[in-house]
Amino acid sequence: MAVLVWRFRSPMRCVSTAVLGGGIGSRGWIVNAQVPSGYGRPDPDRHLLAIARGLRLTGPGVGLMTAVDVRRHRTATEGGVEVVATVGLGIPILAAAAPDDAPVSEVGTINVIALVPERLSDAALVNAATTVAGAKVQAIQEAGIPATGTPTDAVCVACPEIGTPQPFGGPRSAWGAPLARAVREAVLRGIG
Length: 192
What we know:
The protein is α/β, with parallel strands linked by helices. It has one domain (about 5-190). The protein has three helices and seven strands. It has a seven-stranded mixed sheet. α1 (about 45-55) links the parallel β2 (about 25-35) and β3. The protein is globular and about 45 Å long. The chain starts with a strand and ends with a helix.
């Protein structure tokens, strides 16, 4: 099983939708682990924690999963922001699809990990996560796919814990604008 790993020299402030380490908090590492297609363990958080322990990662971290071959990840940088995306669109969906149109048990995942080089306030981190979502949807639409994502997409945005917190993370803010462009580029590369 392949795993992408980020080990931070000092903890980073993260916002994430991941099953392990989701929410907002101080995190020392991030993993994006590849799992088999049809993965159905009822305890993905425990599984990710075991993977992290196997990698000798300690303390709180963020763990994401995907059935995509993580060795095929795509990267983009813009103005100091670094983005890594693993893109699987086997099950594209519209977020507000009618119940009959929504797949129930199949899995497809777009995971986005973004590193912003300056501290963001907690509100700006949440705003940055929504900026990631908007840029991801833009890339999917530009690729001609009538979807907003997949049923299991996840995101993690990390920034330093030191420094004066920047108050904004939206797509027209100092850090949100390069974040949006980098996410769009990485997701488009993953689709292509």
